[in-house]
Structures are given as structure tokens and as C-alpha cells.
Amino acid sequence: MTVEIEKRRVYAIVDFDALDQNVQAMEEKLPQDVGMMAVIKTNAYGHGAKAIAKHLEDNDRISGYAVATAEEALELRKAGIGKMILILGYVFEKDYEDLILQDIRFGIYRKDVAQALDAAAEKCHKKALIHIKIDTGMHRIGYPVCQESVEEIKEIAGLKHLCLEGIFTHFARADEADKSYAKKAYSLFKDMIGALQKEDITFPICHCCNSAAILELPGYHENMVRAGITLYGLWPSEEMDHAFPLHPILSLYSHIVHIKTLPAGSAISYGGTYVTERESRIATIPVGYGDGYPRSLSSKGYVLVRGKPAPIVGRVCMDQMMVDVTDIPDAEYLDRVTLIGQDGNAVISMETLGEMSGRFNYELACNLGDRIPRFYQKDGACVDEMNYFA
Ligand SMILES: *Cc1c(COP(=O)(O)O)cnc(C)c1O
């Protein structure tokens, strides 16, 4: 059951019970003592990082959080989040001291950065905690697997104000049916760890698995994994085995704010790209691309009204769009509209929306706009709220 929310323009419900089920399902894939880091970059893929982290603070299966930027990390600490936080991407010097003082972990793949960080840590009278990033085929950031990298990491290990807490890599192709690329990447990663071990450089924490690898590359879990998209009940790719029990945690709703009957031959929305072929009942929904709803769904996508699909007709505007409810005769002014989620037996998933709009499910989730309030539900009650305007 979803909680009752007072009628409003648009809102998302994020279901903490479904989130817990996803964590539990992944946990069952992992050997005991393997930590799980929740990847909550880009505002937890649009779901609201502070609320998600606050909820996961009480979940013993979650050992910490991964974010992309310094700002994201600091926002979490400010909200009282105490578990380990790792920044996956590059950090600019202006933020070093704040981050060191708050025990936020840095992903490191350059000696110059390590040296600057060491100097900042000395100033803070504290060690900076770092995780060395290895490039095993993504070619984005990270040390390549070679002897020169070993030499450089040795120098970094000699810096007095750094603590080498972890080593990690990221798979470029773990979500494909063909796992040979991921296998090659993993063996490179292990080679690097072995080469460093020979130099007496070891790391308490070692991690490489994203969601796809958690599900489909058992044996690669090392002692920590980084769960992203699957936390939210979404699929890393179409090529994954969809037998795994994932529960989408976000639903998106709106309400019909106008409804009218138009004669055949009526053009709808900007450009008149859609013209009614019959007398039609057209409903207006106050959501548009300004909320992150894809404009490419113009005359292509659909929403759910009274458990039935209502096709989008004409162009999606910035703040509104029109749908055809001719075949849903009981549809009325102020009826609830489901943009993502389930209504009766009908479902629109983030993946369906992605297929229809020619976009990526991750991207759609991340782009859900600030104008959309998120309500967090647990055991049938609303327990938290994220509202940009509040
Ligand atoms: C985003 C990201 C993840 C999580 O990926 P999912 O596919 O969402 O599980 C893990 N590690 C790194 C380095 C990332 O950038």
C-alpha cells in the first residue's frame, strides 16, 4: 500500500521497505564479512541522498556510502551521516581540509594529488584516508596496471600523512552477458594487488564490484562492494538475468488538472504535431520536461489513469503535457496519474520509460527534477520528505 499524499501537482514516493528488500537480496549474494557501500551520488540517483543515507545508517549491512563529489560528501556529514564516505571522482584542492577533518575518503590516482593531500593532512594534524584507484579498462581515471604505477604508489605509501585504507577499480563491462571483459579487468586488478603486496603495500579494504558484478560475478566481491542502481530496484542493463528479485523503490504521480472533449481534427500542443482523428477526450497533466520528464516521449509515451494507459498526445511542454483518455471514460478532473510505478495491474517502469524515450534508466532517475517533492514511506507511513521549496 502506498501512503496517502494530499493532492498536488507532482510527487514521488520512495519506498524504504523495497530498498531494504533490495539490500537484503544483494546481501544474499555476498559471502559473510563482505561490506556493502551504498552508491548515492547524484542525490542517490535522483531518489534523495540525505534521506536514503539517513535510512541506511540503521542498516548494519551497509558499511558506508560512495559519492561522486566533495559537495555530496560534505552534505551527508552535515546531515549527521556517520558511516564511511568515499568520493569516487576527482577532488579539487579547496575542499581537501574540510574533507580530511570529516574523515571523508579520497579516490587517488595521481602522485601530485597525493602529495598535495599529504600537505593538507599535515596542516590538519590528521591523516587523510585514501583509496587507490586502478584503471582496468574503463580508461576514465585510475592507475594503469604496470610497474611504473607500482613505483608511484610506493612513493605515495611513503607519505606520512596519508593512510592507504583501500584499493579499488571499476568495471566498464560487468553488465554484459559476455563476462570476458570483466574477467580480464578483474585479473588485471588482482595482478596489481599482487605486485603491490610484493612491495609490502597492502590494503585493508579492496573493492571492485558495482551492481552488475554483485549480481553476476560471485567470487569477485573481495571484502567490499559498491551497490548503486540495484539499491533503487533498477537494472544495470537489459543483458542481466532478470530473475534476480529487484523492487523499484520510486513511483511518480501527478493529477489531471483539466479535461475536455475536442472534435476530430484538433491539433494538440506546440507545433500541432498531433491531430485528433476522432472526437477525443484530452486530459492535461501538469508535468513536463522541466521536471525531467523526457520531451522525446511526445506522442510516444503513456501514463496510467485508473489502471489504464493514456497515451501522450502532442509535444511534452516544459510544465505540462496532454494525454488521450477517450478510452478511459471514467477518467475525471483531479484523478491521480501514474507516470512511473504501478496502478492496478498496469506498470510503467523506469526501464519502460527509458526504452520509449530512447534514454537510459540511470539518466532518467538522475534527471528527476528538484521541483518534484519526494515522500519516503516505511511500513505504510510517511517517515521523511525531501522538498526543495520547503
Ligand atoms: C556509479 C559507480 C558505481 C555504481 O554503479 P551501479 O551500476 O549503479 O551499481 C560503482 N563504482 C563507481 C566507481 C561508480 O562510478
TrEMBL record:
**Pfam families named in the record:** Ala_racemase_C, Ala_racemase_N
Q: Which residues bind substrate?
A: R140, M318
Q: In which pathway does it act?
A: Amino-acid biosynthesis; D-alanine biosynthesis; D-alanine from L-alanine: step 1/1
Alanine racemase C-terminal domain ranges (all copies): 249-377
Q: List every position bearing N6-(pyridoxal phosphate)lysine.
A: K41
SUPFAM superfamilies the record matches: Alanine racemase C-terminal domain-like, PLP-binding barrel
Q: Which UniProt keywords apply?
A: Isomerase, Pyridoxal phosphate
Q: Tell me which PANTHER family the record gives.
A: ALANINE RACEMASE, ALANINE RACEMASE, CATABOLIC-RELATED
Name of this chain's protein:
Alanine racemase
> What does the record give as the organism's lineage?
Bacteria, Bacillati, Bacillota, Clostridia, Lachnospirales
The primary gene name is: alr
